[in-house]
Amino acid sequence: MYAFTQHRPATVRQAASLLAKQEEAKLLAGGHTLIPTMKLRLAGPKHLVDLSKVEGLSGIEMKGRSLTIGAMTTHVEVQTSPVVRENIPALAELAGKIGDPAVRHRGTIGGSLANNDPNADYPAAALGLGATIITNKRRIPADEFFKGLFETALEPDEIVTKVQFPKVNKAAYVKFPNPASRYALVGVFVSKRSSEIRVVVTGAGANGVFRVTAFEEALKKRFGAKSLEGLTVPADGMASDIHGSAEYRAHLIGVLARRAVAAAG
Amino acid sequence: MPAVALTVNGKPVTGDVDPRTLLVQFLRENLRLTGTHVGCDTSQCGACVVHVDGKAVKACTVFVWQIDGANITTIEGLADPNGPLHPMQEAFREHHGLQCGYCTPGMIMTAVDMVNRKGHDLDDPTIAISAAAPATITS
Ligand code: FES
């Protein structure tokens, strides 16, 4: 691991100014992607700005029809929150399927979204529920947030502070996990909010999380697994590696989408 | 060099560390508590699991300064050194739940965490699913 200096700011403003001032500075949330990456010397920040002492970055709150989750809220907090379970149970379920218990004790929602790993679960929930990512500067709709592999709309000194999820009528997430890492080989998130239907895929796309508009159109006519019968996603543009070919991943999307729609009821 | 102060197995400890020092290094190299092992060093296997403020955490994936002030329990702190084994250690011994033994400290700390979290909800199916997972206990 390359040497670095650690910083522990107490406010978002201090964290942002450290990010802007220090050369090659990176934010540290739960650290469950960044630390392994630093060990491999794939990342070598000169400054680490730890967010764990920053006030007001964690917590879960339901206001009206929207659920707000602080960026430093851990996966286990989302998984076990009665508020999440009651209002968007699919989100609690998804959080409970990330990694293993030790990962869920440290990993955070803000860290996962800002990292935008193409196999991560939270990007599927954010895009699949039409969430809004709130930063120290602005509000970014999920549709405009994810920009490809490990790329987001975030600017260099921008910090995710909260994520806002609208309450939906129906939602479910089904994933085919890699048996060792529990990352999604393919994961499909579906949701229905009045006339808006979203079918979102993580793990499969060569460019990260994406919506399957053909499936969404079919589900608009009738929201049921039958509506997806015979529909497929082309293997073109799918990721391919030792865990699964592009064709296999494309096939799994169809299977998991039907299961997710059935689970959403 | 960040200064850290922790409670490890009930005893206060302090140290001045290089910022790169991981919790597992601090435990093994500074405190000579070598019961916690490094298996994969890539945050997957769980051999290095200890309890940080009562929760299972991979000691290979936390810088020690991140958890300054925390209360840590390692495999060495589970049972009284002069008393009987912790019931989970005894259960692993009784049922030959060791295989080569290298990752056993992490598996025991993970299993204790599972009991702490699930209590009486910890039924046979949950245990079976966890045992079926090849490397990491998932529930
Ligand atoms: S050594 Fe494998 S998870 Fe820490």
Tag the structure with descriptive keywords.
heterodimer, A: about 260 residues, Uridine Diphospho-n-acetylenolpyruvylglucosamine Reductase, domain 2, Uridine Diphospho-n-acetylenolpyruvylglucosamine Reductase, domain 3, 3 domains, 11 helices, 12 strands, B: about 140 residues, alpha+beta, Ubiquitin-like (UB roll), five-stranded mixed β-sheet, 4 helices, about 30% helix, binds FE2/S2 (inorganic) cluster
Q: How would you characterize the overall build of this protein?
A:
The complex is a heterodimer of chains A (265) and B (139). Chain A is α+β, with helices and mostly antiparallel strands and 265 residues long. Chain A folds into three domains: 5-50, Uridine Diphospho-n-acetylenolpyruvylglucosamine Reductase, domain 2; 60-166, Uridine Diphospho-n-acetylenolpyruvylglucosamine Reductase, domain 3 (2-Layer Sandwich); 170-264, Enolase-like, domain 1 (2-Layer Sandwich), CATH 3.30.390.50. Chain A contains eleven helices and twelve strands. Chain A has helices at residues 12-21, 34-39, 75-80, 82-87, 89-96, 101-106, 109-115, 122-128, 142-145, 213-221, 246-264, and strands spanning 5-7, 25-28, 47-50, 60-63, 66-70, 132-135, 139-141, 160-166, 170-177, 184-193, 196-202, 210-211. Chain A has a five-stranded antiparallel sheet. In chain A, strand 2 (25-28), helix 2 and strand 3 (47-50) form a beta-alpha-beta unit. Chain B has 139 residues and is α+β, with helices and mostly antiparallel strands. Chain B has one domain (3-132): Beta-grasp domain (Ubiquitin-like (UB roll)). Chain B is built from four helices and five strands. Chain B has a five-stranded mixed sheet, with helices on one face. The interface between A and B is medium-sized, with 26 and 32 residues.
Characterize this entry briefly.
The complex is a heterodimer of chains A (265) and B (139). Chain A is α+β, with helices and mostly antiparallel strands and 265 residues long.
